[in-house]
Amino acid sequence: MTEHWQLDPDRALPAEPATRDLARTIYQHGAALPLVSMHGHVDVGLFAANQSFGDPAELLITPDHYLVRMLVSQGYRHGQLGVPHRDGTGATEAVERDPRAIWRRFCENWHLFRGTPTRYWLEHELAEIFELPAPPSADNADALYDQLCATIQRDDFRPLALLDRMNVQVLATTDSALSDLGAHADLARTLGPGRIVPTFRPDSLVHIGHPAWAGEIDQLATVSGVDTGDYNGFLAALRNRRRAFIEAGARATDHGHLTADTTPLPAADAERIYRDALQGSVRPADAEAFAAHMLYQMAEMAAEDGLVMQLHPGVLRNHSSEIYRLHGPDQGFDIPVRVEFTHNLRPVLDRFGLSPQFRCILFTTDETVYSRELAPLAGAYPSIRLGAPWWFLDSPEQMRRFRESAVETAGFYNTSGFVDDTRAFASIPARHDLSRRIDAGYLAKLVAEGRLPMDEALDTMVDLAHRLALTAYAAPNN
Amino acid sequence: MTEHWQLDPDRALPAEPATRDLARTIYQHGAALPLVSMHGHVDVGLFAANQSFGDPAELLITPDHYLVRMLVSQGYRHGQLGVPHRDGTGATEAVERDPRAIWRRFCENWHLFRGTPTRYWLEHELAEIFELPAPPSADNADALYDQLCATIQRDDFRPLALLDRMNVQVLATTDSALSDLGAHADLARTLGPGRIVPTFRPDSLVHIGHPAWAGEIDQLATVSGVDTGDYNGFLAALRNRRRAFIEAGARATDHGHLTADTTPLPAADAERIYRDALQGSVRPADAEAFAAHMLYQMAEMAAEDGLVMQLHPGVLRNHSSEIYRLHGPDQGFDIPVRVEFTHNLRPVLDRFGLSPQFRCILFTTDETVYSRELAPLAGAYPSIRLGAPWWFLDSPEQMRRFRESAVETAGFYNTSGFVDDTRAFASIPARHDLSRRIDAGYLAKLVAEGRLPMDEALDTMVDLAHRLALTAYAAPNN
Amino acid sequence: MTEHWQLDPDRALPAEPATRDLARTIYQHGAALPLVSMHGHVDVGLFAANQSFGDPAELLITPDHYLVRMLVSQGYRHGQLGVPHRDGTGATEAVERDPRAIWRRFCENWHLFRGTPTRYWLEHELAEIFELPAPPSADNADALYDQLCATIQRDDFRPLALLDRMNVQVLATTDSALSDLGAHADLARTLGPGRIVPTFRPDSLVHIGHPAWAGEIDQLATVSGVDTGDYNGFLAALRNRRRAFIEAGARATDHGHLTADTTPLPAADAERIYRDALQGSVRPADAEAFAAHMLYQMAEMAAEDGLVMQLHPGVLRNHSSEIYRLHGPDQGFDIPVRVEFTHNLRPVLDRFGLSPQFRCILFTTDETVYSRELAPLAGAYPSIRLGAPWWFLDSPEQMRRFRESAVETAGFYNTSGFVDDTRAFASIPARHDLSRRIDAGYLAKLVAEGRLPMDEALDTMVDLAHRLALTAYAAPNN
């Protein structure tokens, strides 16, 4: 194949010629800056093993819930896209084993992704990273498949080689609070400290109504060496693990809750609920109250140890119980709900919001809170930064609306810089690139409308593309 | 009058010249496609009778609640616009009987409609269908009135002639679940099957707290021939009516509820509440719970018989009890409220959301749910399609925002195509035309920003203007 | 200094050249119209005293909570910006006493305001009113300070001189319901009636749970000469004060509540709660219910006496109790919450919504209600006008979105015209100018997209910039 798939160099920049000229200049000022990827979900094991990726379906399709859910929404079953059944479901439906068939199914349905960020990211990956000659289609599916197979077997396409090729300066993974952090220790030895860092995610330990909770608490005792037999031991074990994460280079914690409620409980109530949970008899309302209480505790610990607290409430996980039963979590059936921050964060902000050591980054999938709640909070409390538009909002129109909704009240400097939040390793450069283009377009609009001089726009571009993320996620006690 | 009122051929297309050129090409690719009008409220009797329209006020003003409410909001009374009082109100306020006076009142207030879709539609109707020479004003009100009177007396302006002139391929009316469907049978004989089809609307049967409910249930027994004396008979009668609608060509059902709650009740509770209602003693909380329960039942029936379920919650009807008392429903005083789908639809989607036969189209007048709830739901469940922006949202800015909010997550192919939702027959082409222009503008933006190639934009235009509605509202078991 | 700081004459107009040309023409049609400032918070004492402003920090920084909160959000303390501690706090933290140091701190952080309306307003004030030679920076801070000091000592920069220079036709202040209105009487003698008028703000009298309430009620008795010892006396005293405000030229009342609830209480309940409150033992739920009840009473009085009722719910005041304790209210820590109008206003609108004498202007900091609730309400009830985007929404992007969200349903003529809502006297022209530019841009878009002819756009511009505010706030019984 000697053909060449050339992406539009001005893609995702504003269409109006004068504004586009400005945007191009601003974009180019930031385009080559190293990637700072402080919130993502690539498995650290990928880098520790540093093996070649498997086949194209395993690399690009089956594990990408953005992509799978779109095909499912048009009538495909998860199994047809290679998503396996969980053990013990008794499901008899076939699961496609042929990666070429999965790839072909995807190529035939390329039109379904028109206008979506999935399409933008894939075009970038396929054209620029994997150097395919043309967009996928029914006709070229097999040829593309063969070419992709050959490419991903090359040594310079192994994960660590790609990390360099993709110009990633620092990458944060998300890790169970129970992780022994061994892979991170190995990588720190190989790559030097601070290139790949862990993030502390304690959700499974604070949602005490979950059937697996008691087992997790036992593991927490083991890994921390702290007795978790009562509530105070539990808190001590969490403090211990946070410290271990800090020593392994962690910059932040990550908290996914259904609501942003941070109301603390009286200690006696927390102790009682913890005791009930250990005995397997926690009431749902108590479990909810305990989750809120633990957000408050996490804020208190953050104010002590300096880890940045990332909070992203408002997604109802596993909306379809059938999909969850058959295939488990993260299959595209997590659906956002309305979210509230002003009342819910008040307990934490009233107590720690002005503390010099406390830092908190807020994410949402409910865009209505940007102008109403998040920008006003971030534009007042020194501890609050406004996270990048995330998950369903990580797209051109949404990123534009984010700037148009948040900057006027919060300014640029109370935002945290871009986070890619991805499980799809190869999509990281595409995501950062798209964000830089949209930010360049927004800055160009300010310049074109006489609202910002060009020299300040250029300076702001570097902040948005690079500096702000480094500052917002600076190591504790820096 | 030899003057000519020429509309801007590029109206409602983007202003930026290069994008406009693209948009014009895309629009022209879809502009002449036949109209597929699958959700509307034109009375089927209009076509069955096929009489000339009365006077201009009766044709264009008095029955158009968009138009009437705007004049009322500026101090006119409904009566001044010809809206009659209901029987027995004892109202002494005069009702204008002179259609020319009503028309003049409208013309003098043409400026009030600046920037509204009512204005866009009327310009299209008046200039292109009725070929008036100039926009309405105090000066030309009488001359326009006379010309309109002459036009609407012509045989080629009778309803069925207009249906051809307006290039309507298929038109769905909305019909009481109690309708004998006789007019539809007549029209199927005259026009052939599938040109004008009914839609099953059972709202009055499931809102059991309404004073007229018991009478409706008696009629249901009569028309269905099924004893509605208990809850199971009620369900059987509804199934019977749905079958009759399917045989008369229906594609869909239509459900207007205050909330989207679909929580089913235990059968015994449903039976008890139904019994209470028959005895005239239903509690408000029970009536609400029953309405939610019946949405679940309707979904179950839809999964059986394949009628598309259309749901549009979130409007508080008859906000002013005085207007309702004097003039009845649909007088411009229905006001939207916040709406929630993620939690509320979970019972139905958890049970039927993956069923091959179940199809559901969701409408909203609360635009905040597009990106937060509706696009994620439609982008995951194969049964869900996202309805067009509807009622208050059927306007240029809102249609743009709909695309900008929904497409990135749901794609184009989980949307249902345009529906005009109108009682104003002559406005149908204007509404479809505006939608095509806005969609062309959105597609042109994607092309101009390098996010979609032109050939794909042209193909998508045909889908949005024509194919998607045919697919989304395909006949059951097709 | 002979340098000159020249603002872009086309700032805040659309970037696309043809649309900008239209916008410039439309803007110029309205740019020189006198300012009608019907909702503001400049202290009437400023005009009554008519003394020179103090130093630049006192003029521009310390009292401007928009500006202070942004610096606080980046780590400064209120004290460093000159905000004093309240008496009796025991705070030991230093408060900056050197206005030059405060000014320098601001200049060094000019970049933090990139993209914010604060920046737009300050550029306008500093360049056009105070004729500074260049934007603030660390380098020129001292020189600018000296120049500002010299300027504000000039007689032609005293408040009343500025009022003329700024082309203010009428300015409404906001005044405690307890005010003796003496300053207003003095100014009416000096300036003639109707140039500076009071606004009746009774919040402190209707929020009966506040510790200071009983004292206020005593003062109410004194100033009104009506015994406030029971609920009926309280209402009579309020009527008395409203009458006094009308006689002093007031056009409107102003109501800030956490919610828009207007549910009236049975008279006996209102009497009991009032009695409880006088005895210092009111329950929080009763206090809330009483506040809602009093909004209903205020609407009833408005329907009697014709004062325009302004309502702006939805802001949680003093979110940080530490900031409130140290520095008091209005320090940038008021944070919006979600707001609801459709249900909450129903009691008032059902009773008074169609009354010829009742007029109500609604404000929000929750932009989601514009299209969902406020535009439909204003587009139906003759008594309702939709207030300008306010507080956090008084910015270029938000003002655009306001038009894009509200006009299609409410039209232009159910909006109230611009209000500047400012405590910062010198920012008034900048705020009106920005509003006119954004409105011109919106009108230009309608023209460019063939949705409005140019002559109608020009006429609408005058309405938006001038006429609508005069009409919406016309004196009672006009």
What does this structure look like?
Three copies of one chain form a homotrimer. Chain A is an alpha/beta fold. The first copy, chain A, folds into two domains: 17-51 and 158-472, TIM Barrel, CATH 3.20.20.140; 52-157, Orthogonal Bundle (uronate isomerase, domain 2, chain A). Helices cover 49% and strands 7% of the residues of chain A. Chain A has 20 helices and eleven strands. Chain A has helices at residues 17-31, 44-49, 56-61, 65-73, 99-108, 117-129, 141-152, 159-165, 182-191, 203-206, 213-224, 231-247, 267-278, 284-305, 321-327, 346-352, 369-378, 396-410, 428-448, 454-472, and strands spanning 35-37, 168-172, 175-176, 196-197, 200-201, 252-255, 308-311, 315-316, 335-336, 360-362, 384-386. In chain A, the strands form four sheets. The first copy, chain A, has a four-stranded parallel β-sheet, with helices on one face. A three-stranded parallel β-sheet of chain A has the order 1-2-4. In chain A, helix 17 links the parallel strand 10 and strand 11. The termini of chain A are far apart.
